[in-house]
Amino acid sequence: MTTRTDATFFPPIPEAQRWLKGKTFSAERPLINLAQAAPADPPPPQMRDAMAEMLSDPASHLYGPVLGLPELRDALAQDWSAHYGATVRAENVGITAGCNQAFAATLAALTHEGDEVIVPVPWYFNHKMWMDMTGVRAVPLPCGDDLIPDPEEARKLITPRTKAIAIVTPNNPTGVEYPAETLRSLFDLCQETGLRLIVDETYRDFDSREGAPHDLLQRDGWQNTLVQLYSFSKAYRLTGHRVGAIFTAPKLLHNIEKFQDTVAICAPSFGQMAACWGLENLRDWTRGQRAEILSRRAALVDGFALLAAEGWRLRGCGAYFAYVEHPFAMGASELAPLLVDQAQVLVLPATMFTPTGDASGERCLRVAFANANEEQLRSFVSRLAQLDLPALAPPATTA
Asked: Which CATH entry fits the domain spanning 45-282: 3.30.43.10, 3.40.50.10320, 3.40.50.1110, 3.40.640.10?
């Protein structure tokens, strides 16, 4: 008998890493790995020094409160209140072992087997995987050419089994920053229909817009509709220490606490202590990291002008990601592994972010550029421009 986990697709990042097995790359033309969005560097030196001192604290090695260390919950509530011009209290904050677990815990508290969650396409693959493994149906919400979900199209997908709409902004995989008006309309829709709006803001710290990207936390009764998710992995490079967060109503966090206690008991205490130190001491450093990511984004956008003449199209670009439409006759699922050999580039096909059979996935690639410097990004663009592959036939026209 096949289990739901057995029927779930294999994680895309390890799958793409298999394309490198047995391959070697020259020093003159090294592999440019643009597949994974996680920071490749460790936390900054000043944080590592502070973490070394934390190791002598016995509490760093012990279980902590299931919903997180009180000092971290309080510091994060203050940070969120200041950033969004709103009132967020520590009781609205739960700490999880990474943002993926925040999503899993939220759905465990909100859904039964057979329930539905509306997700824009292309979607974040780990969200889809969790739904598949737990028997929750992911209802695809196709986006238009701008890759922004339409709230009125989402309304058409609501059924008696719908429990939530889940979005990621800035988006993974497209990099698109959803406008405040879109989030406001989705919030209104969820509030009207009794759904939860799950907003994964893992890449919030690299949004190109100054200030708060939306005003949802200023809405009356926000905690009864909104569930915000966050990750410390990107902002402070704490990927291996697994610290994420959930912002919502205390009543929902009470049910999430049951999930946490069963699965992880608590997020790692050492990582939580580091995250708290980062909130208090790394504000200027994180601003610098944001500026660097925005500079790399600009370099990729500028460089892409070279590819436009070759039929490539930059569909979206922001935070850690670019979403590019290729001009070739083959699909992206065939093209992506071929690029390892022909361009010494590793990127993901958009088929890893779309429903099976969705033709849009074969037309696009996801580029994760956060770990590539500007020179590498220029080289990436140059290598794509040198490809000599059969082009997609232009659409037929009628007289």
From this structure: 3.40.640.10
Per-residue pLDDT of the chain (399 residues), as tens digits, is 689 888 888 888 888 899 999 889 999 999 999 998 888 889 999 999 999 999 999 999 999 999 999 999 999 999 999 999 999 999 999 999 999 999 999 999 999 999 999 999 999 999 999 999 999 999 999 999 999 999 999 999 999 999 999 999 999 999 999 999 999 999 999 999 999 999 999 999 999 999 999 999 999 999 999 999 999 999 999 999 999 999 999 999 999 999 999 999 999 999 999 999 999 999 999 999 999 999 999 999 999 888 998 899 999 999 999 999 999 999 999 999 999 999 999 999 999 999 998 999 999 999 999 999 999 999 999 999 999 888 876 665 554
Encoded amino acid at 128, one letter: K
Give start-end residues of each CATH 3.90.1150.10 domain in the chain.
4-42+285-385
31, 352 contact by CB (below 8 A): no
User: What DSSP state is assigned to residue 208?
Assistant: S
Q: Which superfamily does 4-42+285-385 belong to?
A: Aspartate Aminotransferase, domain 1 (3.90.1150.10)
- pTM, 2 dp: 0.94
Give how far Cα 74 sits from Cα of 70, 71, 246, 279, Å: 6, 5, 13, 11
Closest CA to 69 of 87, 57, 81: 57
